[in-house]
Amino acid sequence: MEKIYDVVIIGSGPAGLAAGLYAARAKMKTLILEKNKAGGQIVTTNEVANYPGSIQNATGPSLIARMVEQTEEFGAERKKDNVIDVDFTGKIKVVKGEEGEYKAKSVIIAGGAIPRLIGCPGEKELTGKGVSYCATCDADFFTDLEVFVVGGGDSAVEEAIYLTKFARKVTIVHRRDQLRAAKSIQEKAFKNEKIDFMWDTVIEEIKGDGIVESVVFKNVKTGEITEYHANEEDGTFGIFPFVGYQPLSDIYKEKIKLNKAGYIITDADMRTSVEGVFAAGDIREKSLRQVVTATADGAIAAVSAEKYIENNFEE
């Protein structure tokens, strides 16, 4: 007999794992699909201080390990597979992976988002070698060094302020002549003596032999090109791009409603534009992307999926 799950959850970050926990506890046949390892972005975070009830010295990996343990304890099935397509047209939904095809009465999409790249030469090659997308993970590596933060939104300015606890100097590089961050955050940055600003500027190239050694800047108004070289004594410096996130939603185009930025549109109960399909976490349109909101989304999505099945499928 063909196996049909009550719910297939795509992604095993905090949203997917919370959904898995709530679904499995409700005695739903639950499958969690993840293309890599469990955890999403949070596994790169060295300290989790803003998740309610976090134990002392909680880290991203330790928090995720406990979440995984809970989902398994209640019977959720986990499988490593990369989802490449979906068919939401029928009452039974079909999720297609590289390793197989999975059928379910409902689907929860929790695929998350990834940091948006600057897109310049040298960025990918030097990621983890001076280029970082996580200040809380890597700030310590740049103690007493210089750091450049790229971006002008809330997260960029907040991360720049955080980095001043470690770096001797932080320069915010922004393509416009004023920040987009909330006024209260801007005020903190302008008052911080360790923070400088490069306005109307973008990064053209990042250079280095195994480690960041120089960066090429371009003034977007004048066209002037300048190259900054690492201090001889330092040998390197840090570059932290915070130019937004990219939702991992390409395969859902034309299948469910997305906003202009590619985020999945849901209501307060995590329902998408397709009946029986729900979304949770960073992949959906929302104002705050944090572990605490991701887990809340996951719980709501699972409860909504359970109600949907009760109302649409006879025992």
Automatic annotation (TrEMBL):
What is this enzyme's catalytic activity, as reactions?
A: [thioredoxin]-dithiol + NADP(+) = [thioredoxin]-disulfide + NADPH + H(+)
Which InterPro entries does the protein's record reference? FAD/NAD-bd_sf (IPR036188), FAD/NAD-binding_dom (IPR023753), Ferredoxin-NADP_redctase_2 (IPR050097), Pyr_nucl-diS_OxRdtase_2_AS (IPR008255), Thioredox_Rdtase (IPR005982)
Top enzyme category: oxidoreductase
Q: What biological process terms from GO does the record include?
A: removal of superoxide radicals
Cofactor binding comment, as recorded? Binds 1 FAD per subunit.
Pfam families hit by this protein: Pyr_redox_2 (PF07992)
User: Looking at the record's lineage, which domain of life comes first?
Assistant: Bacteria
What UniProt keywords are attached to this protein's entry? Disulfide bond, FAD, Flavoprotein, NADP, Oxidoreductase, Redox-active center
Task: List residues of the FAD/NAD(P)-binding domain.
Answer: 5-298
Q: Which cofactor does it need?
A: FAD
Molecular-function annotations in GO: thioredoxin-disulfide reductase (NADPH) activity
Annotated EC: 1.8.1.9
Gene Ontology annotations for the cellular component aspect, listed alphabetically = cytoplasm
Its family?
Belongs to the class-II pyridine nucleotide-disulfide oxidoreductase family.
Give the record's subunit note: Homodimer.
> What name does this protein carry?
Thioredoxin reductase
Which organism was this protein described from? Crassaminicella thermophila
Native organism taxonomy:
Bacteria, Bacillati, Bacillota, Clostridia, Eubacteriales
Its gene name is trxB
